[in-house]
Each structure stands twice: as C-alpha cells, then as structure tokens.
Write a structure and sequence with these properties.
The chain is of the alpha/beta class. It contains ten helices and six strands, in the order βαβαβαβαβαβααααα. GO terms for molecular function: DNA binding.
Length: 211
Amino acid sequence: MPEHPVRLMIVDDHPVVRDGLRGMFDGLADITVVAEAADGHEALAQARSHRPDVVLMDLRMPGLDGVGAVERLHTDYPEIKVIVLTTYDTDGDVSRALAAGVAGYLLKDAPREDLHRAVRTVAAGGRVFAGAVTSRLADRLVTPSANRREPSARELEVLRLIAGGAGNKEVARTLLISETTVKTHLKHVYAKLGVDNRAAAVAVALSRRLI
C-alpha cells in the first residue's frame, strides 16, 4: 500500500454519474475521492485547490471539454495523472486524448474492480487502456508492411521503462545513456510503430505484446 491514499478527482457533467463513481471508491483504504467537477474549468480550479494524484475525466462536457482540460492539467500540473472515462471510443476521441497526454483511456462500462486497478496502476506510474481502445489503435496505427522493421531490443527496453512511468531523465539514468540517446530511441520507435507520441507507442506496443 502507498504511504498515503491515492487522491482521486472525478470530472463529469452528470451529477448521477459522479455520485455513482464516488460510491465505487467508498470504503477503500488506499484511494480517497478528494474533489469533483462538472466541467473542465471547474476541474482546473479543483486541481489547484486539492492537487489530486489521479483524475477520472469525462471527454464530452460543456464549456472546456475533457481534452482541453487534460491539456491544461498536463501543462500546469504535470504530476497529475489523467484517466479518460467515457462512453466514446472513436478514433478521433482516442487520438485527441492520447495527444493530450492521458495516462489511461477506459469506457464507462468498466467493472468496479477494473476502475480500482486502473487508478492504482496510473498512480504508480503505469498506463491503462481498455481492450477495445488498444485494438482500435492497433488497427488504425499499425499498417502491416514487409519493409517496416520491429523496434530493437534496446528501443523496447526504453519503451518498457516509459510504459512504467519513467521520464527521459530516469530512463537515461537507469540505462546509463544520455537523454539525447533516449530521445533518439523514442524517435525510432515512433517511426517503426507508426505513431507520433509516447502514449500511443506504449498502447500499440502493448496491443502487439512487444512489451
């Protein structure tokens, strides 16, 4: 168990959904709901006041939507991890969320235990994606090609550390290489997997069981 309970914020424009989600975490010793918000603007204000560790974020809300809120949170509070929790898994929604820097993407029909596990995983530095989302990513982003090379063992080693939540500095320190080399490895991984950011690279690598 972590030294202190994971501080969780729930963001959704429907009060009934927020109440239901809060109830799913009642009684857990290692996760505490510290704030709720009905839209992206309120989420930013609550984040400033309560500094949650993890946010469960709806995508489609009036005013500032989920992706806009994630982008602002990622810039202002990079230590806060965001899991999208939505009913939508279209290519456009998934792509925008990944580009914004989410640590997870789950659908609202996820079982209670899966939500608990996801919050714990993301709080520990990992990433979580619904099976349907990783399948869509693989179908959309990975085009079979006889000319496309697989990532090297070293590149996958870098990606595996990234998937575990490590930043470039930590990867460089762990592997005894420079940050520039880490960035080069990631650039090669993106090209080989047909993606343009680390979250998408991790999702595709997981879907293909490369890591």
